[in-house]
Design brief:
Number of strands: 2
GO biological process, one term: terpenoid biosynthetic process
Strand order of the largest sheet: 1-2
Radius of gyration: 19 Å
Shape: globular
Distance between the termini: 27 Å
GO cellular component, one term: cytoplasm
GO molecular function: metal ion binding; prenyltransferase activity
Structural class: mainly alpha
Helix content: over 70%
Keywords: Isoprene biosynthesis, Magnesium, Metal-binding, Transferase
Order of helices and strands: HHHHEEHHHHHHHHHHH
Organism: Methylocystis hirsuta
């Protein structure tokens, strides 16, 4: 399809994925306990819902849904996996915003969870979302094949944990008080862990659900890695150039806290050039899947990441 039609179809699918994810999360975070649960405390559930409903572009769920679609997988398997990933993402935002971490008062244009509730409830809400994510993926409702579910659980744990997002957050915090700034190589590693790992999982998950070949899975991983790196650079640029009203969160905080960013290391022009190069790398990786025009929407997602304004 031509560029304009592709961009329009991408936006339609992004919006559809967001709506589907919102509805599915709403149902998953209902008051009634599941078999094996004893009760769902009302205030904790309210905080979990506040943290995960009613905001965000839902890019990560979109990537799960669209990467699975490449292999003909649609419906509950992709959507439930997408919801689990979004729960992990939302929990990370709740914890990142805490006073002990980034100490933010604004997220998605409204008070952060610890401001809307309290710090203890915010911590527990994050814990609840993290744990529930693995409940959702491990549930037979997500996929009839236990091997597929186990592969998803393992990949998600590796992306979200010590060697992925959580480890990246630890490196990010340590860099703020380090005696010397992080090198370019160390900054890239930190960002690949903190931001890139979950975005990479989103497309890896589609390959797991769809039974991708080894070469297709490797190509999707390369796409996810390049997309994640481009996303983080775009985020750094937005923080340097944007305003809080447009971003829905406090702008300029990276420089204030001395965070390691490619904007700080390279300057804005070089950071933009690197972002654009990563988008090209991502689209080239998609061509290596051998799936042809079916990957056009994911290629448009890479361009969207680079051009976003919030």
């Amino acid at each position: 399809m031509d560029a304009a039609a592709c961009a329009e179809e991408f936006r339609r699918r992004l919006d559809a994925a967001a709506d589907a994810t919102e509805s599915a999360l709403d149902a998953l975070l209902a008051p009634a306990p599941l078999p094996g649960e004893i009760a769902r405390p009302a205030r904790l559930l309210e905080a979990m819902r506040y943290s995960s409903l009613g905001g965000g572009k839902r890019l990560r769920p979109f990537l799960v849904i669209e990467s699975a679609r490449l292999f003909g997988v649609v419906g509950e398997a992709a959507l439930r996996t997408a919801c689990a990933l979004e729960m992990i993402h939302c929990y990370s935002l709740v914890h990142d915003d805490l006073p002990a971490m980034d100490d933010d008062d604004l997220r998605r244009g409204r008070p952060t969870t610890h401001k809307a509730f309290d710090e203890a409830t915010a911590i527990l809400a994050g814990d609840g979302l993290l744990t529930y994510a693995f409940d959702v993926v491990a549930d037979p409702k997500t996929h009839h094949d236990a091997g597929v579910r186990a592969a998803l659980v393992l990949a998600l744990a590796r992306a979200a944990g010590l060697g992925g997002m959580v480890g990246g957050q630890a490196l990010d915090l340590a860099a703020e008080t380090a005696a010397t700034p992080l090198t370019l190589e160390a900054t890239l590693q930190m960002q690949a862990m903190k931001t890139g790992a979950l975005l990479r999982f989103a497309v890896d998950a589609g390959g797991i659900l769809g039974g991708a070949s080894v070469s297709q899975a490797r190509a999707l991983t390369r796409y996810g890695e390049a997309l994640g790196a481009a996303f983080q650079i775009a985020d750094d640029i937005l923080d340097a150039e944007g305003d809080s009203a447009a971003l829905g969160k406090r702008a300029g905080k990276d420089a204030e806290r001395g965070k390691a960013t490619l904007v700080g290391l390279l300057g804005l022009d070089a950071a933009r050039a690197r972002r654009d190069s990563l988008v090209a790398e991502a689209t080239a990786a998609l061509r290596e899947t051998g799936l042809g025009e079916a990957t056009d929407i994911l290629a448009e997602a890479a361009r969207f990441v680079a051009a976003r304004r919030n």
